[in-house]
């Protein structure tokens, strides 16, 4: 019973939030060097359109020029039932606020994302959890029409129990409480089922170029150009 009372209280508090994108608080004194490294997405609020589904692993790096880049891998499904693994590459443009970045996706990866997104670090302790938020479309009233958010952990097994209250509070402040789903890590990034229309195609091309989407399956990888053709069919 107590659990339901707490849930109702949190829901009421969520309704009381103004949900204005301009009022969202981000991480203070953000340190991108400490943020760098590998993070496992353990929860996410999906945006509109195609997006990584599960087994999402992101690695942030700081270059010699001080700029941050990231690669992300995960499983996606297109054409209703075709599973594939996607590897994406992005670069970050800094803003006057250290925890707010503009993220640009490169190559075929831009077809899985909008091409340019905000990347806001809402909160992190650098060693265990991090909360990412992006609003793609702001409504006329200042709230977000199309957003996505990722809950990251340094551990693929999920968040520590002691981090859960902090993460829940941040979900509330983002007006996204109850809108996340768990991101499992099964290690099953490689599909074992080849689409029927590719059964006779030549799929021996190397698709390991940085910034491309790698389509991995029991047949190795198919050319990125074929992937782009499929995406165009979906537009």
UniProtKB/TrEMBL annotation:
Signal peptide: 1-16
Superkingdom, taxonomy of origin: Eukaryota
UniProt domain Lipocalin/cytosolic fatty-acid binding: residue ranges: 36-157
Listed InterPro entries: Calycin, Lipocalin_ApoD, Lipocln_cytosolic_FA-bd_dom, Retinol-bd/Purpurin
Gene Ontology CC entries for this record: extracellular space; yolk
Location in the cell: Secreted
Chain sites annotated for binding substrate: 113
Keywords: Acetylation, Disulfide bond, Retinol-binding, Secreted, Signal, Transport
Gene Ontology MF term list: retinol binding; retinol transmembrane transporter activity
Functional description taken from the UniProt entry: RBP delivers retinol from the liver stores to the peripheral tissues. In plasma, the RBP-retinol complex interacts with transthyretin, this prevents its loss by filtration through the kidney glomeruli.
Entry similarity comment: Belongs to the calycin superfamily. Lipocalin family.
Protein's UniProt name: Plasma retinol-binding protein II
